[in-house]
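User: I'm curious whether this sequence folds into something compact or stays loose and floppy. Could you predict its structure so I can see for myself?
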Amino acid sequence: MMKIFFFIILLLLFTKISTQTVPCDHPIYCQGELLNIIQMSSIFNDSKTFVDMPLKFPPNIILEKFQNLSDHSISSLNSFLTENFLPAGSEVLSTKPVDWHPNPKFLTEINNEDLKNWGSKIHAIWLDLFRVFDHNLSCSECFSSLKSPKPFIVPGGRFREYYYWDNLWIVEGLLVSEMLETSLDIVENLLDMIEKYGFVWNGARLYYSKRSQPPVISLMIFEIYQEISKGNSSKALNLLEKSYDLLLREYNFWMKEKRCNIVNISKELMDLNCYKGFSEMPRPESYKEDQLLAEKSQKINSSIFREIIAGAETGWDFSSRFFEDFQNMTTINVSRMIPVDLNAILYKVEVTLSEISKILNRKKDELFFREQSQLRKKTMMEILFDERTSQWRDADIENLNKNPNFYLSNFIPLWAFDNIDDVQINEIIGKIDQIQKNFIGGIPTSLKNSSQQWDFPNVWPPLQDFIIFGLNKRDDKYAKKVAFELAQKYIDNAFCGWSFSEAKMGKGAMFEKYNSLIIGVSGSGGEYEAQEGFGWSNGVALKILKHFGKELRRPSCDTIKIE
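Assistant: Here's the prediction. I'll summarize afterward.
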């Protein structure tokens, strides 16, 4: 009873903000005839380009000019854009972090000199990705980017703003680089979003207002707290105190807006969480792509647009994992699935909030979140765990049928859970080992080649991180052996990709995603070309170099030829 009572108190204490109350209503960046005409005209190869262009004049003036256009030919539209818009990202300025220094301690822990030199170059990439928004170029309504109180790290490439879950691996990499102040700036921007909107948006643009991403800010803040507490306990405690209510507010949002409402569930279990989309329009930054997909689909437009938004919210945009036929995006149906990874992350959030509550001496909160985490874990084991194949699987909300296919998300609870039955652990580790032996470049996201970027043969850094460090934290020699093998494969891929880029173009590059079959090659598929930068790729590489630097060998990079 106390648990139920406390949850009701939570709901009452914190503002009930629905995604419906923070619509993207900008008349140019989010909706309207101008957006439709420009995006469907294919003036830009990437739909994101237009909605990242600041306005030279207030929206009403530009809309009036648009209405007075004599025609919508490509030449007329190009002239109109030149006259009324600044280049995409004009308000995004490079700046320098105050806490970067050239010789962080982790470099001394890397035995191989080539890997040490490479680690130093990755550490220096933060200087290339540090940004600030400058909204002094035009009027207050002339930008799609959000007013953010602090500078930030961009992922790289086409991504000119910061993104929610990318920041977990960026912050972890920054902590390896001993950049505490920059890490604090990042979480301050995210906390500012929660204060204004009730949750963290997918990214720092108006057109992302209808969706979030996996909720990881509690994890970021606790990691920063642990790092600060090594030298300044009062400053560390202050971070928890000033962020605590906002972390509860975000948790409340997820528990209110993103619950699965499972029908066939016993009273001893809990409703798990799902991704849900609330927009019934194309994504502004992928407007044409969504419109064309809707024309091919058998679904009602409003329905497929909601599912696309939910798919973007997963961070896996997009994957056969959420397609009804496991192949074609026209069958996307995200909201019917109970996702393993989201619930594993929320379990970790609940454990972390319990720890934070304990530190702040909030005993009722500590007990509540501990009970919530235990109940979630029990429910996940009963509903999502597949004993026959030793992995967790997404399940259908209506009948709880499990997704029969392999996706790397099937093993993310290994990262979230500290304690699992020993027999199950051995079987789970064996299954991961069996799969990883087939791939030279790391475990692919899936074994389905759907042409989507979160499918075969792509290797995504955040998923490798979940598995590597989920295994490595086990007090088990076999788990640590597999963790190291996967860590080496990630370093092989990233190091060789850098080396090949350096030889071909004179400058090394980190890729957003990699290929599981050929090391040193960028991943492919999806709506846009593979991007360089790259925030989370850097963060994962730095973490691996720090934790495994004494053992890692220099990759040979002789498996492919440089063209």
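Summary: The longest strand covers residues 130-133. The radius of gyration is 23 Å.
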